[in-house]
Amino acid sequence: MNTAVWNGIGVMSGTSLDGIDLAWCRFERTDGRWTYHILDASTFPYSPDFRQRLADAPRMSALAYTQLNVDLGELFAQHINQWIGQRPKPDFIASHGHTVFHQPQHGLTTQIGSGAVIAAQTGIRTVCDFRTTDVALGGQGAPLVPIGDEHLFGRYDACLNLGGFSNISFRKEDHRIAFDISPCNMALNLLANRQGLEYDPDGRIAESGSIIHPLLEKLNQLDYYRLPAPKSLGKEWFDGMFLPLLQPFLDNDNLPNCLRTVVEHIAMQMSAAVPMCAGQMLVTGGGAHNRFLIQRLSDLSPLRVVVPDARTVDYKEALVFAFLGLLRLQEENNCLNSVTGSISNNCGGAVYLPAKAL
Fold first, then answer.
1. What's 305's DSSP letter?
2. What's the predicted TM-score (pTM) here?
3. Are 10 and 94 found together in one domain?
């Protein structure tokens, strides 16, 4: 029996701007089969000022945008160094960075948070920029998590992630299918923010509201939902297509009804996306803590919804990006063209090495 072991830190900053997720992971490969352990995990919230800078990034000047890339890399490195403390350094860091632009139809995607700065300030080799190779090969550059679903969570019939957007991954015949489904926390948190809340705890406000049927019908008729996979969503689509449909209904008295309607929309789109079979669906991401959303998904889905332990719920994406970084360092494919639509499977990621003493 041949076993190899690696330790790495996965770094994730999601579109919901809730903070920086760090997951210290151990990966073992025995005779070609992978197992994982999340040894430690933490989230570091953004300060209000930094969160606003990230929200403003798409409209910044080139100079301000470049400075933000460096500053975010420094912030990542600062939190990583404090978090590691006196522990032995891991073998590598794998940082997704923070997505600002994602327009694969124009051949571009950008994630900021300088990998060079992270490697220089932590002294640990760093992998970042996971999406651009796939986009250059004609793919969506997203979603990337399905390679982890395939190797680490293959016992489930489907894997659903409820982040800023919801996305799903499942096997169909002899290959894995995955795609972004709909907005999720990005829409729900935006509505909760208008009530002065960071999010809707347990979906209680949504549960108290009533469905606005004309709004639900408009949301369900968005062209994206009729597109075949592979396909992916970005903030540009949310701002340009989804949000304008909500705007006419956004007076304060109507917010519980808007939340109720958006929850129903999300649950309907997710249930329509899952494979029509008996089995289990793993559900992770921040939206898995929304009790009412999970209830509606369970009511509508043909698969049995499984919400795992809190650490897996909150840090699965960071875990999988650590895994993608390891595959990159092993020069193995970490992106599936059956998922993204690129011309081939590929090995994406830029590698930055720390300086060596002379």
1. E
2. 0.88
3. yes
